[in-house]
Design goal:
This protein has a 28-stranded antiparallel beta sheet that branches. By secondary structure, the protein is mostly beta strands. The chain has eight helices and 48 strands.
C-alpha cells in the first residue's frame, strides 16, 4: 500500500508538469446560414498530426503541445475552410468562441469537381471534347478559374483528357470501360445532391483508389451525410438550356436509424445558344440509409437522368462567312418547328447498394454492388439512291466551283479552271436553302397519287430513300468492390481496394423514322450483290421503324482493379507508397454476318487480354505551419480502351495489329503557402503517355497507289494509329490574397507545352478490297511525322486576374479578366506520312512537291488568343427564418467571337489534291471549326425549406 501511494505521489507532479506543457483550444462550430451546430467537423493544427472532430453540439477541444504561433484549420465537406491564427501559451485554455462555416455553394455557383459546363456536351466525346469539368476544387483559385472562367474555351487541366482521371461514386469507379471516360450526361441536374466530395489532383494519394495522373474525384451519397433540410432552385440561362427547376430534401438520421435524401429536377430549352440545339432533361435521385447498429450501415443510391440534346455542327470558314458563328447545319424546318437530325439521347439509370462496416475505431470496410443499364443513342440521316441531304455537302457550296482544276497532264497538274458563274448560283441557292429540307425528304419517300381527272390527290408511302436512324449503345454493367481503410499505428495508415466490373454492350443501328415511307432496304448502296447485305443470315430485309439494321454486335468485357497503399504521417514529413494491379479482357460478338467480311463478322472474336501494374509515391515536407513542399510521382501501364482495341467493330472481329498497353509516367512538385490572408500554390508537372492507339474513319481521295496494283485511288477507309506518344509539361500558379475583410484578389496562371512525342505507325484499311479475291485490305502507311506537333483541343496557356467584393450585408460582386492562348487545330495524320507525296497514278513523287511548299501546307494552324471578361454577383436574405439566395453571372461580357477547336479534313490525302485546294484561295475541304459562346448569362434563385 505504501508503495502505491509513493507511485501516486511521484506521478502526480509529472501529470501536473505535462498539463502545464500544453495549451487547450476549445470552441463551437455552427452553420453560418442555419446557425445550427455541425457535427464531425475536422479541427486540426495545420502541418501537424493534431486533429479532432466536433461533437453533436459542435464543440471541440484540442490539446496542443506545440509552442508559438500556429494555424488552426476548420474543415468540413460542403463548407469553405476556415483558417485561424492562434498562439500557444502553455498552461492556458483559449476559448475561440463560436466559429461559423460558410456553405461552399452559398453563392450558388456550380458544384465543385462535377462542373458540367455546356461545352462538355460537345460532339460525342471527340477530340473537341471539353473536360475541365473533371477535378475542379472549390478551394483553389486556379481550379476555380479552370472550371468557371477558362472552361468556356475548353481548357483542360494539364492538357489531359478525362480518361486520365478517376471518377468514383461511394468508392466505385464510374469511368466507362468503352472509352475510359465518365459519361457526363449521367450526372446532369444532380448538383444539389452531389456536393459531398473528396478529391486529389495529379498523382496525389487517394484513400479509395490508385487513380490516374489527372487525379481522383470521390462523390459520397450516403444519406446520413446530408444536412437536414431542403431547397428549391430555379435557373435561367441562354447556353445549353434556358430553364431549370430542381427540388431537394434530406431527412437527417432519425431515432430509428433511418435517413434519406431525394431530388428531382428538369432542364429544357427549345433552342440553346447555337441554332437548332434543343435540350430536354429530367433528373431523379434517391438515397436511403439504415443504421443497423453502432458499427454497420446499409445505403442504397439510385438515380435516373434521361436527357436529349440537339448537336451543333463544326463549320468551315466558308460556311461561317456565308452565315454566322451560331450556324448549325444539322437542323431544318418541319411543320413550323426546328427539327435537329443529330440528337443525342441518354438514359442510363444506376442502382447501388453500399455496406459500411466499422471494424474498430481505426478500421473501416466499405463494400458495394452496382448495376447500371440503359441506352445511349446518336441520331443521323441515312440515305440510299438519293442526293445528300446535308445542306453544306461540298458539291452544294460555292467553293466546289471556285477550286476546280482540269485533269492531270500525265504526271503534271492540270490547269486551274474555276467556274465563278456556277459558284455565284450555288451561293444564292445555299443562302435560300441553308438548312435540312425535311419536306423534300418526305416527298422523296412517297409516290404521287392522281385522281381520275389527272390532278394530284395526295401522296402514298413507298420505299424510303431517306430515314432517320440512331447509332445505339445499350450497356449493362455489373460491378462489385470493397475498400479497406485502417490506421496501423499513430503514424501509419493503410488503404486497399478491389473492384470487379462486367460489361455487356449491345451496339446496333436502329431505325427511328421512315420519314413518310413504308420501308428501308437493309443494304450498303456502295456495294453490289452479297457484299451490299448487312446480314447474310437474313438477306433482302425491308426494315421498319423500331427495327435493327446495318450493324449489330456485342462488346463483352471484364476488368479487375486492385490497389494497396501505405501512408506515413510525422511531425515534419508525410509520405506514401501505392501500387496497383489490373486485368482486362475484351471480346467482340458479331450478331450479323456482314456481306463484306462474311468469314470474320459473325460470332465471337478472339479474346484480348491485358495485365497492368502501377506504382506511385510522394512526400510532403512541412517547412512551417504556413509552408509546405510536396512531390508526387507515378509510373503505370493501362489497357487500351475497348473502343480502340478493334479496328472496325461495326463490320468485323478484327483486332488492332500489335495493340499493347499504354505506358504512363508523371511527376509533379508543389510549393504551398497558406495563411489567413494569403493562399498560394506553385506547381511544376510532367506527364508522358506512350503507346496510345487511336482509330478514325473518313473518305480519302488520292490515297492508294495505282503503281502498286490497287484499282481505286479513293475510298472510305479506317485509319489506325499505334505507338503514339504524348508529352505534357507545364506550371500552375494559384494566388489568392485577402486585401481586407471585404475585398479579395485572385491570380491564376497555366503555362503548358503539350506535344506529340513520337511518330506513330499508320495503318489504313479499305473495306472495298475485302470483296476482291486475294486483294489486300490493310495497308502500312509507315510513320506519321507528328513529333513536336501540338496536341489539339485546348488552350495551352491561360491567365486570370480577379477581384471580389463581399459586403457585410450579404451581397457580393466579382469580376475577372482572362487571357487564353496557344490553342491549335487537330491535324490529319495521313497527310504527315511519306505516302502524302506519292502520286497514286504512277507511284512516283509529285514533281511539284517541294519541301518548302509541303511545310507551308502542313504547318499546324494556331488559333487567335482569347480575352474574356466575366462578371458574377449574388445576394442572400433570411425571410421568415428561411434562406433565399440569388446568384447571377455574365460570361464573355464583350461578346467576342472565338474558335474553341477544330480539325483538318482528311479527304485531300495527297500533296497535289491539298495544294490545288489551298492554292485556289477558296478550299472546298478546308478545316472545320467549333466556336465558343458569345455573351451568355446564368441566373439562379435558391429558396431554403
Amino acid at each position: 500500500m505504501r508503495k502505491k501511494y509513493l507511485v501516486f505521489l511521484f506521478l502526480l507532479p509529472l501529470n501536473f508538469v505535462f498539463a502545464q506543457e500544453e495549451t487547450t483550444f476549445f470552441g463551437f462550430v455552427i452553420d453560418a446560414k442555419t446557425q445550427n451546430a455541425i457535427e464531425n467537423v475536422v479541427v486540426s493544427i495545420q502541418n501537424s498530426s493534431l486533429t479532432q472532430l466536433t461533437s453533436a453540439d459542435g464543440r471541440f477541444e484540442l490539446h496542443s503541445q506545440i509552442k508559438g504561433q500556429q494555424l488552426l484549420l476548420i474543415h468540413s465537406q460542403g463548407y469553405k475552410d476556415l483558417l485561424l491564427k492562434i498562439e500557444s501559451n502553455f498552461g492556458f485554455k483559449v476559448n475561440l468562441g463560436i466559429l461559423q462555416l460558410e456553405d461552399t455553394f452559398s453563392d450558388e455557383t456550380p458544384a465543385a469537381l462535377i462542373t458540367l459546363l455546356d461545352s462538355d456536351f460537345s460532339e460525342d466525346n471527340s477530340s473537341s471534347e471539353m473536360t475541365s469539368g473533371l477535378l475542379q476544387s472549390s478551394k483553389d483559385a486556379f481550379m476555380q478559374a479552370s472550371a468557371f472562367n477558362w472552361g468556356q474555351a475548353r481548357f483542360r487541366v494539364r492538357g489531359l483528357d478525362s480518361e486520365n482521371g478517376t471518377m468514383m461514386l461511394n468508392g466505385m469507379i464510374m469511368n466507362k470501360i468503352y472509352d475510359g471516360r465518365p459519361q457526363w450526361s449521367n450526372w446532369g441536374g444532380l448538383n444539389n445532391v452531389l456536393r459531398n466530395q473528396e478529391f486529389s489532383v495529379g498523382a496525389a494519394t487517394s484513400n479509395y483508389t490508385f487513380g490516374g495522373i489527372l487525379g481522383t474525384q470521390q462523390i459520397f451519397t450516403r444519406a446520413s451525410m446530408y444536412r437536414k433540410g431542403g431547397n428549391l432552385t430555379f435557373s435561367g440561362s441562354n447556353t445549353t438550356y434556358n430553364w431549370r427547376a430542381v427540388g431537394s430534401y434530406a431527412s437527417g438520421m432519425n431515432a430509428s436509424g433511418w435517413a434519406y435524401a431525394i431530388s428531382a429536377g428538369k432542364r429544357w430549352s427549345e433552342e440553346g445558344f447555337f441554332e437548332g440545339t434543343n435540350f430536354n432533361a429530367d433528373s431523379f435521385f434517391i438515397c436511403v440509409e439504415k443504421k443497423l447498429n453502432a458499427k454497420q450501415s446499409l445505403n442504397f443510391t439510385g438515380f435516373y437522368t434521361p436527357n436529349s440534346r440537339g448537336k451543333n455542327s463544326a463549320n468551315t470558314n466558308e460556311v461561317k462567312q456565308l452565315t454566322n458563328e451560331k450556324y448549325n447545319s444539322y437542323w431544318g424546318w418541319q411543320s413550323g418547328k426546328k427539327r435537329n437530325a443529330k440528337v443525342k439521347n441518354v438514359e442510363e439509370p444506376l442502382l447501388m447498394l453500399n455496406h459500411y462496416l466499422k471494424i474498430d475505431d481505426k478500421t473501416n470496410l466499405n463494400s458495394a454492388v452496382m448495376y447500371q443499364f440503359g441506352k445511349v443513342g446518336n441520331s443521323n440521316i441515312d440515305y440510299q439512291k438519293g442526293h445528300s441531304p446535308d445542306p453544306v455537302y461540298y458539291k452544294k457550296m460555292p467553293s466546289y466551283f471556285t477550286s476546280l482544276y482540269a485533269k492531270d497532264h500525265g504526271e503534271f497538274s492540270g490547269e486551274f479552271t474555276p467556274d465563278y458563274e456556277s459558284a455565284e448560283k450555288s451561293k444564292m441557292t445555299f443562302l435560300d436553302n441553308s438548312q435540312i429540307d425535311w419536306e423534300s425528304m418526305y416527298r422523296g419517300n412517297q409516290t404521287i397519287m392522281v385522281n381520275s381527272e389527272g390532278d394530284i390527290s395526295g401522296f402514298e408511302p413507298a420505299q424510303s430513300h431517306y430515314v432517320l436512324y440512331e447509332d445505339r449503345t445499350d450497356d449493362k454493367t455489373f460491378a462489385a468492390n470493397s475498400n479497406l481503410n485502417a490506421q496501423l499505428t499513430s503514424n501509419i495508415f493503410f488503404d486497399a481496394g478491389v473492384t470487379f466490373r462486367n460489361l455487356k454492350s449491345h451496339n446496333f443501328q436502329y431505325l427511328l423514322d421512315l420519314l413518310g415511307g413504308s420501308y428501308f432496304e437493309d443494304i450498303d448502296p456502295f456495294y453490289k450483290g452479297n457484299q451490299s447485305k448487312s446480314d447474310l443470315q437474313n438477306p433482302n430485309r425491308q426494315v421498319k421503324e423500331g427495327e435493327v439494321y446495318g450493324y449489330n454486335y456485342n462488346f463483352l468485357a471484364n476488368t479487375i482493379d486492385a490497389f494497396t497503399q501505405f501512408r506515413f504521417s510525422y511531425k515534419k514529413t508525410d509520405f506514401y507508397l501505392a501500387q496497383s494491379y489490373s486485368m482486362s479482357n475484351y471480346q467482340r460478338e458479331g450478331l450479323y454476318q456482314n456481306g463484306i467480311y462474311s468469314s470474320n463478322s459473325l460470332g465471337k472474336s478472339d479474346m484480348v487480354n491485358f495485365e497492368n501494374f502501377g506504382f506511385k509515391g510522394g512526400f510532403t515536407y512541412k517547412i512551417s505551419g504556413k509552408q509546405s513542399l510536396f512531390f508526387n510521382g507515378s509510373h503505370l501501364t493501362r489497357a487500351p480502351s475497348l473502343r480502340n482495341t478493334f479496328s472496325n467493330s461495326r463490320l468485323n472481329n478484327s483486332i488492332v495489329s500489335g495493340i499493347e498497353s499504354e505506358n504512363i509516367s508523371s511527376a509533379e512538385v508543389n510549393y504551398a503557402y497558406r495563411s489567413p490572408k494569403l493562399k498560394m500554390r506553385l506547381t511544376a508537372y510532367y506527364a508522358l503517355i506512350k503507346n496510345s492507339t487511336k482509330t478514325s474513319f473518313f473518305y480519302a481521295e488520292g490515297i492508294f497507289d495505282n503503281g502498286a496494283g490497287n484499282d481505286a485511288t479513293a475510298a472510305f477507309v479506317s485509319q489506325t494509329l499505334t505507338h503514339m506518344n504524348k508529352k505534357n509539361i507545364g506550371t500552375e500558379l494559384s494566388f489568392e490574397y485577402q486585401i481586407s475583410s471585404i475585398l479579395k484578389t485572385t491570380l491564376s496562371a497555366a503555362y503548358g507545352n503539350y506535344t506529340y512525342d513520337s511518330n506513330p505507325d499508320v495503318a489504313i484499311t479499305n473495306d472495298a478490297n475485302a470483296v476482291k479475291p486475294g486483294a489486300q485490305t490493310t495497308f502500312d502507311f509507315g510513320k506519321a511525322y507528328l513529333k513536336n506537333y501540338k496536341q489539339a483541343g485546348m488552350p495551352q496557356q491561360a491567365y486570370s486576374v480577379g477581384l471580389e467584393y463581399r459586403d457585410p450585408k450579404f451581397w457580393w460582386l466579382g469580376a475577372n479578366i482572362n487571357y487564353l492562348a496557344e490553342s491549335y487545330i487537330d491535324v490529319s495524320p495521313i497527310a504527315r506520312t511519306a505516302q502524302f507525296y506519292i502520286n497514286p497514278a504512277n507511284g512516283f513523287p509529285f514533281p511539284e512537291a517541294t519541301k518548302e511548299r509541303g511545310d507551308q501546307l502542313l504547318k499546324q494552324e494556331k488559333f487567335d488568343p482569347i480575352s474574356l471578361l466575366n462578371i458574377s454577383g449574388g445576394k442572400s436574405w433570411r425571410i421568415y427564418g428561411k434562406y433565399v439566395g440569388l446568384f447571377t453571372s455574365v460570361n464573355n461580357v464583350l461578346n467576342l467571337t472565338y474558335k474553341t477547336g477544330g480539325f483538318e479534313q482528311a479527304r485531300n490525302a495527297n500533296f497535289r489534291a491539298l495544294n490545288q485546294d489551298v492554292s485556289s484561295g477558296t478550299p472546298s475541304f478546308g478545316p472545320k471549326y467549333y466556336y465558343g459562346y458569345g455573351r451568355t448569362y446564368f441566373l439562379n434563385l435558391t429558396i431554403g425549406l
